[in-house]
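Re: [help] complex structure
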Amino acid sequence: MRKTLPIFGVFRLPPLARREALWGLAFLSPWILGFILLTLLPMLATFGFTFTNITLTQEQPLRFVGIENYQTLFKDPQFWKSLGVNLKYGLLALPVGLALPLILALLLNSRYIKAPALFRTLFYLPYVIPFVAGFFAWSSMLNPENGWINEGLRALGMQNPPYWLNDIRWVYPALVIIGLWGIGSSMVINLASLQGVPTELYDAARVDGAGWWGSLLNVTLPMISPVIFYGLILGVIEVFQYFLVPLVMNTGTGAPGGATMFYNLYLYKTFFTFQNMSYGATLAWVLFAIILVFTLILFKTSKFWVFYAGENQ
Amino acid sequence: MKRTVFTLVILLTVLTSLVSACSPKPAGTTEPTQASVPEQGQPTQSSEITSDNQAVEIRWFIGLGTGDDPAQVESEKKIVEQFNAEHPNIKLVMEVVNYNGARDALATEIASGNPPDIVGPVGVSGAEAFHGQWLDLTSLVEKTKYDLDQFDKGAVDFYRVGGEGLIGLPFAIFPSMLYYQRDMFDEAGLNYPPHKYGEKYKWADGTEVEWNYDTLRELAMKLTVDKNGKDATNPSFDPQNISQYGYEPQYQDPRAVGGYFKAGSLVADDGKTAQIPDAWADSWHWLYDGVWNDHYIPNDAVRQSSEYNSGNPFNSGKVAMALTHLWYTCCLVDAGQNWDMAVVPSYIGTTTANFNADTFRILKDTKHPDEAFEVVTYLIGPASLELLDIYEGMPARKTDQEAFFKTLDEQFPQEVDWQVAVDGIAYADNPNFEAYMPNYNEAFDRINTFFTLITSTEGLDLDKEIDTLKSDLQVIFDKAD
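Output below.
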């Protein structure tokens, strides 16, 4: 039987079902039209831009340039530098962003903890604060001269505590610390998955002589591996799309010394500050391809470590 | 029947919402970030004319240079009201955008086919970010018989750009000079730096030396003091605990730092090859050593700290000297009332006091060039003294300069030697350090990244970084082809 798009299948339905389906489509039409006009078509248009020389001010006549923008991109040192910035940040942020919410969830899931609901709320609370407001609070705390963190380090005897956001060696740890502000959501997801692990599996592990570590490695982690995988996929995407903090920090200059010129910030500046729409679109599509490749690699490798209950693995 | 009507109503509602959401805003509609002239303050006559659609609307974009400060905006509003009252044929409307977002905002307005008519005040750097977008005023000057003789020929020629014509008229000029704190010199027992170009510097023991960057370095080290009261020339000086710095290149980018050594450009005469003038490389070595080896210039972290006024260290009152421009009087609130100004030092026998100049420009896509020109000549004419006062700009028109300095004297009663500023005009840099580079905005961004790198990172191989800057600039310039 030949398959058709559901929208065309409507006309083959019986009259009553067809009427209902048409009403459904009528109510969905604002979203469908909005998606097509405001998302899909602009997306496709940006792909077309990558083969032209469109700039915001268009000093030169508009022309087709073939793959020139892609060739420029691979020769562009800032493209590689920005990718490097994301990777350096990701190498630090991803492990912390995956491990810390899991550790917190394990602690909150412990039967020995008192008032777990209170701790859950406290850990989740920063997540509801707008990220930009959170950044300003953190940048004050990380102030080299009078921030609480350096005041604390001085009180502990450190003569010259780090300059954090103003030092290219310390800016990534500082950004990771700021990112911890938002781990409440991941913690709740991890906690929910931990609470979904069947208790009889722990009973069976105990009967087999497994201790806490044994249960964690052989029962808990395999059972929640789909959630860890989900977190990893989202984490990788977030690392490549990291934008808001570097934009707000130093008004998007990439300071100190270009260490915060993340890929997305470079993309944004190419569009709006450097006014080069074609090249900005090229950067955007290459970013899409990079994220796609990383995601596909993760999906391909997932069969070796992600356990789905019910599958024969 | 009811069902059909209901369906039609839904479809019409959806279509109406879509059409209204997608339709462009009428020209002159102000965004929330823009400040338009309040209706309450509009003269009746102007409002009536506008409602009759007889007045031509001219949009004035503010923020690409100075002018977005709330206090300045208030004065600008008054000038707009006055203009509108006197010119019933034109309705002048302000668009104020925060400086940090002004380049993006203007680029977007131009791209969307909804550009303003007038932009300003804007300096060379802000204008070059929109290279090729400015209207050649030659024919309008001829048509209206506008008198260019009221300005120095040099000031007019500053705006004659090859291939683009006359793209501005002189308004405000900002020579550069060395600001210094008299008290800090007195405390250290040092003589003040020279106030006349060509004069030597006299040390406390009476010996006289050339007023150059070696002398400035030595002086700045003597004025840099640690928490134990030892200066930076003392072997037991503690660079980790500095309480007063000797020098700051205040609000100067690497091109300006280079331009003080010698006039030059990062692009060769062919207009597309990246180059680093030797004198500029020397100036960056001088700066780098000052930050990391001799410790008389604050590093980026110190400069950005609240203790050093978040990027405005000279104003903190903890820095003895700063090379910058005359517009810096705008930002001297906490620096005390005993600062003065001295001349710019020389480099290998030549002095270059680099130069800033602001004016109002007309975008070439304006639909009303005649009216826009009328507004510009009003702003640089009858309204100029009031505007120059709020922008802290030195009048390009010679006859207005005395009144300008009198106003500054009221603001800074410590008897500042303003003649230093006037004398500095003769040492202006040519080519100007902010002059055209291909792909201006991206090149400017890369240069600023170089600046934060060298002021935030100790132990760099500076020559290697300079080579990297040059090759990166070449890639950026090539993108413009």
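The mean pLDDT of chain B is 88.
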